[in-house]
């Protein structure tokens, strides 16, 4: 009889951290930020609050981890967009579809609620730059630059197109959270975004 493979301490730690992060994501997406309490997190993750504190230091630490996980998942989705030998139209289409897969997911819904509750870098509660701001735009700009590396536009126009795309995705995600969006309209909006980005990049 084969002996079970024993996991290392690092593997067990990663598994526990991942389970806690996913519990928070699912809880915020399903019951909202305010109801994602310590007891709700521990119930869903199957751990004690002491374990959460051991891995993340408390609720603010776990929320930061959720944001980081969301940014990583966003980058992973966009990394799957075919680039080599692909036409600009194909890359724009793949980019929009992959980005919407993220913005329409529980990961983004959780990120959105955390951002609404203004999680800050400074644990003292003093005003400081939101922790997500530089990370989110750095992640977004990185994948954009990789997918559209051959598109030479003035920096200002590139930022305008990025901001426009983010605004579109965020607005559609907000409507979906309010259950006011229906699939045909959403599909039409995505197609319009694809056509707009392609036109502006080809100009």
Describe this structure as you would to a colleague.
This protein has 203 residues and is mainly α. It has a domain at 63-202: Tetracycline Repressor, domain 2 (Orthogonal Bundle). The protein is 72% helix and 0% strand. It is built from 9 helices and no strands.
Low-confidence stretches: 120-124
Using only C-alpha atoms, the radius of gyration works out to: 19 Å
Q: Kindly, what is the distance between the CA atoms of the first and last residues, rounded to a whole number of angstroms?
A: 66 Å
Which CATH-level-2 architecture of the domain at 63-202? Orthogonal Bundle
Number of helices: 9
| Average of the residue pLDDT scores | 84
Approximately what portion of the residues adopt beta-strand conformation?
Answer: under 5%
Q: Any key phrases for this structure?
A:
9 helices, mainly alpha, 0% strand, Tetracycline Repressor, domain 2, 203 residues
Topology:
Layout: H1 9-31, H2 38-45, H3 49-56, H4 59-79, H5 88-103, H6 106-116, H7 131-147, H8 155-177, H9 183-202
Helix pairs in contact: 1-2, 1-4, 1-6, 3-4, 4-5, 4-6, 4-7, 5-9, 8-9
Brief overview:
This protein has 9 helices and no strands. It has 203 residues and is mainly alpha-helical.
């Amino acid at each position: 009889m084969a002996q079970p493979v024993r996991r290392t301490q690092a593997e067990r730690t990663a598994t526990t951290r991942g389970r806690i992060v996913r519990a928070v994501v699912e809880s915020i997406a399903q019951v909202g930020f305010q109801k994602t309490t310590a007891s709700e997190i521990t119930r869903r993750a199957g751990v004690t609050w002491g374990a959460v504190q051991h891995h993340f230091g408390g609720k603010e630490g776990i929320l930061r981890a959720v944001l980081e996980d969301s940014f990583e998942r966003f980058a992973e989705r966009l990394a799957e967009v075919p680039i080599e030998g692909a036409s600009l139209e194909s890359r724009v289409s793949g980019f929009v579809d992959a980005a919407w897969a993220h913005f329409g997911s529980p990961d983004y819904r959780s990120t959105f609620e955390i951002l609404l509750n203004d999680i800050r870098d400074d644990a003292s509660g003093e005003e400081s730059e939101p922790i997500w701001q530089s990370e989110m735009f750095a992640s977004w700009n990185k994948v954009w630059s990789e997918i559209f590396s051959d598109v030479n536009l003035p920096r200002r126009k590139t930022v305008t197109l990025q901001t426009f795309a983010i605004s579109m995705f965020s607005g559609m995600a907000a409507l979906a959270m309010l259950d006011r969006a229906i699939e045909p309209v959403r599909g039409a909006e995505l197609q319009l975004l694809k056509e707009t980005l392609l036109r502006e990049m080809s100009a």
